[in-house]
Design brief:
Length: 150
């Protein structure tokens, strides 16, 4: 066994023992346990930070092209000259499908709804990999809505 891994595992075991002796397990310890022992492919944990994040098929250029091809500027936003950046979070699941879509930075006049529509229309992504395992991962995508006013 690698010395650094056994040292870290020893610290983890000591932390767990002291936590159980005190009759509680902190959320940080629970998180360490989940990350250290996650081997079950049925696991539904959602990771915020991963070694290899999820990727749109074809990469970031293909993602930008997909958004540009599919974006339909809402009529109300056109009439009001509304522009802005909508940030949307979602989970890329182990099978590459997208779930849990949430707007975290809204823009009025239908732009937020259009960003969600585009996310829902996306094909399956290449899922995230963390410590050699395919995992569910949260992803935040900003979509910039700009009008060509010239």
């Amino acid at each position: 066994m690698n010395t650094s891994k056994s040292f870290c595992l020893g610290i983890l075991v000591m932390t767990l023992c002291s936590s159980f002796i005190e009759g509680k397990v902190s959320s940080q310890t629970t998180s360490i346990i989940q990350q250290t022992t996650q081997q079950d492919p049925e696991d539904n944990d959602i990771y915020l930070y991963v070694e290899n994040p999820p990727k749109f098929p074809g990469g970031s250029t293909a993602l930008a092209n997909f958004i540009n091809r599919n974006l339909k500027y809402p009529q109300k936003a056109l009439e009001n000259f509304t522009q802005g950046k909508v940030s949307v979070s979602f989970v890329v699941k182990k099978d590459g499908s997208i779930s849990d879509i949430k707007v975290i930075k809204k823009v009025k006049d239908g732009l937020s709804e259009e960003a969600v529509r585009i996310i829902k229309a996306m094909p399956k992504w290449k899922p995230a990999v963390h410590h050699g395992l395919i995992v569910n991962a949260k992803y935040v995508l900003p979509i910039d809505f700009k009008l060509n006013l010239s």
